[in-house]
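go over this chain:
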Amino acid sequence: MHEHQETDPAQDDIEAVTRAVLTASRLLVAVSARSLATVEETITLPQFRMLVVLSTRGPSKLVVLAEHLGVQPSTAMRMVDRLIAAGLVSRRTNPANRRETVQSLTEEGQRVVRHVTARRRAEITGILRRLDPSQRSALVSALNAFNAAGREPSSGAGDADPLPLGWSDPADDTP
């Protein structure tokens, strides 16, 4: 006779939640990709990520920008060069240290971030409207707990431009 091995209920719960989160992340990636559709001819997702960092953090030195993005400075430099060519980023000499440059969004770069974020917000809102109020409430609680466990800063109700793609400062990742 074949013995049936018991499984730990907590482990089963973690597996079910992991599958649900992976599915939800697939949906959110698809929403993000669709929100970039109108600008994908001009910029890639990593380049948009750079625009988001500049939007939320303000003008940045190249080395700091590379750290926020988790890339090498040479990679960040190539991205900046492409975004400058597209008219979305500007570069100027750092007034505090003339050997450095500071990158910032142009007005067009700011417009692109606002536009893509508004498209993503609208699509997410449409999906959420299909849930009943008790499901939405449970989702808020669950996502707040998930974000806290992942040390992702929350965006308040009044935040005009929360981190649109959720990239936080790696320096904030201290235990």
